[in-house]
Amino acid sequence: MTALLTIIVLVLVAIAIWQMTKMFELSQTSTDDSQVANDSDNKLNGYLMFGFLVFIYLLTIFSFVQYGDVVLGTPASEHGSDYDNLMFISMALIFFVQIVTQALLHYFAYKYRGQKGKRALFYADNDRLEFIWTIIPVITLAGLILYGLYTWTTLMDVDPDEGDPIIVELYAQQFNWKARYAGEDNVLGEANVRLIEIDKNNVLGVDESDPYGQDDIVSQTELHLPVGRKVIFKMRSQDVLHSAYMPHFRAQMNCVPGMVTQFAFTPVITTEEMRADPDMLEKVQKINKLRAERSASGEDADPWQFDYVLLCNKICGSSHYNMQMKIVVEEEDEFNAWLEAQQTFGEQMAAAE
Ligand SMILES: [Cu+2]
Fold first, then answer.
1. What distance in angstroms lies between residue 149's CA and the mean position of ligand 1's atoms?
2. Centroid of ligand 1 to alpha carbon of 323 (angstroms)
3. Residues spanned by CATH 2.60.40.420 within the chain?
4. Annotation: CATH topology of 166-352
5. pTM of the shown model
6. How much is the average pLDDT of 328-350?
7. What separation in Å is there between the alpha carbon of 208 and the centre of ligand 1?
8. Which pLDDT tens digit goes with each residue over 51-71?
9. Is there a contact between 68 and 14 (Cβ–Cβ < 8 Å)?
């Protein structure tokens, strides 16, 4: 309702301004009512071009100052800094080129504005100039693409024979995540959506006849990961396209119905350590200040504590925004103790019989 009223008010204000300009035009006695732009019109537009340039630069500086601290901060996975470097170099390059080209674009729009008696120079072509403006972007883009491919192949390290990884399945469905650990044998049992039995709590459709599945461990609430150990994620989706997004670990992979996708990373910072990270402390403080203000005005806003999260990064339906799972990164012995305390799939099925 408020939005509708705001729109109506804005439309009325726009109409009022338009009417006032018309009145202003009519009240001018000695106006040039020609529809063709004259020198002073062109000059005005030339200056407006400059004004716009200043506006976008100021907006950029403002955004950096105001929102520079809401970026992700310290990466919590081994490959995270490679990923951040790629991102930083690409952005710095784009930023530099855009600053130069925007300045030139707006400057030339001003310099070559329409002026009486000024004629455009007829200039057919210049091979050297065309060569230069083709070859520079070609080399730059090729370099960026090669660098990107190199980074991708180094961080896409899903070989199970390398680095003693643990295998974890991430199962996406509207609108939650479930995790399945491969257990003692480190092999996930076969699973299929047709084998899902809600009354037996076989929510992932693990095949009961597959011996590999017996020691699998399903977690429906939290994803625990051991620090310093490579984890290979096997992603499945029950219904639509989802995307497993773990921003603090710089990891994302689509979950596609009917196939298994994979991604791997090694967490290097435990949840406890990340909570003590100076950038994170500052961020949490800022959020809790806002929350305190809200709860002072009667809203429900408890103080917040940092936790890693697994989010869905594909708009997959009405509750997509809330499709998340808490991730706990801990020392290996704590992780093993947690895993030990969970029921295996075999025990779970035996209990359901
Ligand atoms: Cu989703």
1. 27
2. 6
3. 166-352
4. Immunoglobulin-like (2.60.40)
5. 0.79
6. 88
7. 27
8. 999 999 999 999 999 988 888
9. no
